Amino acid sequence: MASLCFFSAGIEFRFREVPVGGAALDSTGVPLPDDTLAAAKESDAILLGAIGGYKWDANEKHLKPETGLLQLRAGLGVFANLRPATVLPQLVDSSTLKKEVADGVDIMVVRELTGGIYFGKPRGFGSNDRGEDIGFNTEVYAASEIDRIARVAFEVARKRRGKLCSVDKANVLEASMLWRKRVTGLASEFPDVELSHMYVDNAAMQLIRNPKQFDTIVTNNIFGDILSDEASMLTGSIGMLPSASIGDLGPGLFEPIHGSAPDIAGQDKANPLATVLSAAMLLRYGLGEEEAAKRIEAAVINTLNRGFRTGDIFSGGTTLVGCKQMGEEVLRSV
Amino acid sequence: MASLCFFSAGIEFRFREVPVGGAALDSTGVPLPDDTLAAAKESDAILLGAIGGYKWDANEKHLKPETGLLQLRAGLGVFANLRPATVLPQLVDSSTLKKEVADGVDIMVVRELTGGIYFGKPRGFGSNDRGEDIGFNTEVYAASEIDRIARVAFEVARKRRGKLCSVDKANVLEASMLWRKRVTGLASEFPDVELSHMYVDNAAMQLIRNPKQFDTIVTNNIFGDILSDEASMLTGSIGMLPSASIGDLGPGLFEPIHGSAPDIAGQDKANPLATVLSAAMLLRYGLGEEEAAKRIEAAVINTLNRGFRTGDIFSGGTTLVGCKQMGEEVLRSV
Ligand SMILES: CC(C)[C@H](C(=O)O)[C@@H](O)C(=O)O
Ligand SMILES: CC(C)[C@H](C(=O)O)[C@@H](O)C(=O)O
């Protein structure tokens, strides 16, 4: 557990480093040690690294790195996951979409993070009346769970372009029917936000057909897992994308959306900008330090404008750098 | 109930037309009349039109057109939904993907269609221990349900390029863990097929990043609903895409993947080619008439080569035609 303290922009930072996921499995045998959760809860905000790797891939469920992440989300009660998918003009060519389709895409996916099929009970294995093995999970939402994530999404949309699209499968699932009913019921509290609804299969299509139609999307845990990854890949530069997970009380959790990329571990190739931009989200949503957040974001843009690129976003006419140098260039750009 | 009989290519066809979905609601008050299901079961194959429309959008669940479709799938036991997403060289410009990414994409999504969260019990509405409204559904798969869809997928992959990617969320869901275990267990029966596994969120990304990496995809009902729509939109021409739903015994169900497009109903604008190509799938998978299927597919390609396009796939230098004329041009191209 490292500890560090410094001042910057008039803010005093104190850092503690604690293990979760693979690192915690190696040092303590569990993916979320009690000390880690306690330290996280005592903090004002948490910056999280990526959590998996080949080494633990075959572990049983309760010993998977992912389980530690899910326990941390649940333990902190961070029910709202904010995942921006923004195409920066500097990186529009990284997208596999045609330039005219990708240019200007700026979507925020608000994903419910502590409910639904990820946590619903009953779940597990069993056998059916023919004696066959079965595996089962429960998709369940309570009115208050839907209301609180919808409120966050309405607030987010209000601060953006005022458009909120709620995604569900209300033509088939009861959990989605309740979702649609509750979200619709809240709309009158946000008269300045234009609410629409879309089925998840259609949303998966529309994100590709015309992503610019979307401003803010709100959806459940599993649909959000899928759609936020789809939306981020539209940008062609997921090594650039941060995320914020916040709750009602207590600290928020901030992390890059990319995984741990075990294939390039230790090679000084990873793009650090998603983590840097996660720190910006931490300042904005976790600590209310908007100015400091903007300074970091401006430094990242400046670094890109100066032509520096890691391998994942490299294209002709720019300067290829490693993870370490990219970090240094950002510092130089502040 | 219309009835029609004619001979073509040495095959005798007898047609019966029966209502389902919106049409059935209007004429009988239910979305799947008993007579319709009985007629479907007596047939050798079923060609289905699209089933929804604004008029019935606000109906209660048991009176939704979609419910009729789900009842028909379940009633016929068509557990395997085959959905090709093919980019035709003639239409590569219709895709919102860059030409070099879209060109040559040829994916078959094999979706489980009669199980999982669409049909799992318990489901419904209730209240939790705090007296709040809840909505819930059950994602459940039995070993035999997974095995039979996996076998279909292995067979399909074997006749294609020999690559099968099974998509699940086995890092979180027990239903997916059993899915992965069963699919893996069958691999040794198909040594000529190369099996891989992918998480659904990653699959949603990879379809955009590099769709050509996929040959055949097999996945559960809800993930298949989302991913097959995503895959089809990659082609930019979903008005072109057919689908087949087949079971172990009894007739298969063949339908375009697009919806009823109520916004252009009655305007002679719809693209009929997905329905025409569904008839080709009906001949191939429903009746084993490969030659006749190929003739229809060749006629469609020929029609495109002659430059005819409906509005949804129109681009400069081609001839814009309506639904009716497009059908006539296909007949002329046989
Ligand atoms: C690692 C996994 C459990 C996690 C999730 O499914 O939530 C990840 O995909 C994410 O989106 O953060
Ligand atoms: C209409 C709806 C019930 C249906 C589904 O979800 O299966 C449709 O989206 C499809 O993919 O055929």
Overview of this structure, please?
The structure is a homodimer of 334-residue chains. Chain A has 334 residues and is an alpha/beta fold. The first copy, chain A, is built from eleven helices and 14 strands. In chain A, strands 3-12-11-4-5-10-8-9 form an eight-stranded mixed beta sheet, with helices on both faces. Chain A has a domain of 148 residues: Isopropylmalate Dehydrogenase (3-Layer(aba) Sandwich). At the A-B interface, strand 7, helix 6, helix 7 and helix 8 of A face strand 7, helix 6, helix 7 and helix 8 of B. The structure holds 3-isopropylmalic acid (IPM) (2 copies). Chains A, B: Catalyzes the oxidation of 3-carboxy-2-hydroxy-4-methylpentanoate (3-isopropylmalate) to 3-carboxy-4-methyl-2-oxopentanoate. The product decarboxylates to 4-methyl-2 oxopentanoate.
Summary keywords:
binds 3-isopropylmalic acid; homodimer; 334 residues; eight-stranded mixed sheet; 22% strand; Isopropylmalate Dehydrogenase; alpha/beta; 11 helices
Helix/strand order of chain A, N-terminal first: EEHHEHEHEEEHEHEHEHEEHHEEH
Q: Could you tell me which chain pair has the largest interface and how many residues each side has?
A: A-B, 62 and 62 residues
Please state the second-level CATH architecture of the domain at 89-236 in chain A.
3-Layer(aba) Sandwich
Helix content of chain A: 25-40%
Chain oligomer state: homodimer
Low-confidence parts of chain A lasting 5 or more residues at pLDDT below 50?
Answer: none
CATH superfamily of the domain at 89-236 in chain A: Isopropylmalate Dehydrogenase
> Looking across the biggest beta sheet of chain A, what order are the strands in?
3-12-11-4-5-10-8-9
Number of helices of chain A: 11
Q: Tell me the overall shape of chain A.
A: globular
Strand content of chain A: 15-25%
Largest sheet of chain A: 8 strands, mixed
**Average residue pLDDT of chain A:** 95
Structure class of chain A = alpha/beta
What is the name of the CATH class of the domain at 89-236 in chain A? Alpha Beta
Chemical compounds bound to the protein? 3-isopropylmalic acid
Calculate the terminal CA-CA distance of chain A, rounded to whole Å.
29 Å
| CATH topology grouping of the domain at 89-236 in chain A | Isopropylmalate Dehydrogenase
Radius of gyration of chain A: 20 Å
Counting DSSP E segments of at least 2 residues, the number of strands of chain A comes to 14
